[in-house]
Amino acid sequence: MVEGPGVDAPAQIAALVGPLAVLTAAVDEVFAACMASLSAAELMEFLRGWESHRRREEALSNRLVAEVMTRGIAGELGYSSPQALLAGVLRVDPGEAKARVRAAADLAPRVGLTGERLPPVFAETAAAQEAGSISAGHARVIVSTLDGLSAELDFDRGSQLQSQLVAAADVFAPHELAKLATRIVAHLDPDCVEPRDARQERQRAFTLAKRADGMVVATGALTPACGAALESVLDSLSAPAPAGEGPDGVVEPDRRTAAQRRHDALLDASLRLLADGGLPKGGGVASTLLITMTEEQFRTQRGYATTSHGDLISVRQSMTLAEEADVVTVVLNAAGGVVSHGRTRRLASPAQRHALYARDGGCSFPQCTVPVQWTQVHHHIPWQRGGETALHNMALVCGHHHRAFEKLGWTLSMADGAPWWIPPPWIDPRQTPLRNTHHAPATAPV
Length: 446
Prior knowledge:
Blueprint (H helix, E strand, L loop, with lengths): L9 H23 L7 H31 L2 H4 L5 H9 L3 H14 L2 E2 L5 E2 L4 H8 L5 H12 L7 H14 L5 H15 L4 H11 L1 E6 L5 E6 L2 H14 L20 H18 L13 E6 H6 L3 E4 L4 E3 H10 L2 E6 L5 E4 L8 H11 L14 E5 L14 E5 H6 L6 E5 L2 E5 L24
Parallel strand pairs: 5-8
Antiparallel strand pairs: 1-2, 3-4, 5-6, 6-7, 8-9, 10-11, 12-13
Helix pairs in contact: 2-5, 4-5, 7-8, 7-9, 11-12
């Protein structure tokens, strides 16, 4: 314990240290116990009991921090604030220290100006937390909801709302309780919805920060409308996609993480927007991703090209982007002169896309179920290497397989104007060409 002015009663210290030692010994005993010997029912009973204990610990922490604040111990020990004391003595982050001080102010007993003991500001919530029935997350939802009530809602209405939310916390998780609280407040005070919307509009933000290694970190706060729209886009494009079917009929699963699938979905959505010409014009031309590289880079397909924002992107990646989206590649010679700029028929025409839709029916990769609306056009012989933008040189693939088929060891073969995929030898030693039978018939390649 930290000793200082005001801590001068050994008997009081012993009264607290004794139970703490007993509690520590009990926890040590739990650590030493063999939990593998418990039945499923016994294990779940113990887990629920331990969760209740943890919640009560949070309530006790609130009381301890409140005592530190009431007695001004931070100043006595040379700290500028209770937050600074918690951060320094307990080695917690400043943000967590601030949150603990705020929770103590709301949920711990108070001392009046004349020294009398007063109940917590949110007494019913504090009592439920001390009983172990609600968590710190539940308590934060309830406190923030009551703090945000408009002046038109009287004290009695606020008290009733607190009771409702404390009771609901026995059923709902904190994020569900927050949604319920929002609905209840909107029902009690319909006029509060517009101020909340206005506050969220003021707080909206989105930033792309570029790291030294070229990766881009997205941060920000999206309004519910923007978040809902983005979630719908990501949901439609981030579903797991199989990596193909082996000769034994076993489908290889999509090994991307959920976060990686969402990243790929955002890339696919951006490429779609660049490709369909729906973006507003800038400088008199349609919005375009401009990529500049040297003649040697274009010839060797190595090194880094430069975007119009001055960022570096590998030549290989830039060529992949240029195959599908409205991307213009400008090739410069050693003196800085323009050698070439793009290709007039890089993108498939609407008529060609309709023909590909009819032929492939969706992603042509084996076992992939992505429909035509979510596919990209892949050139069998890359357009930057002279490949024609013609039906016999193109196949529909989803964004995931467009980026990953080479890494997975698959190759595309065009036979009699139709796409067939050749699996790697570790999947099929005979490397028998496969067709996506979900969209197209499984006839033998010519």
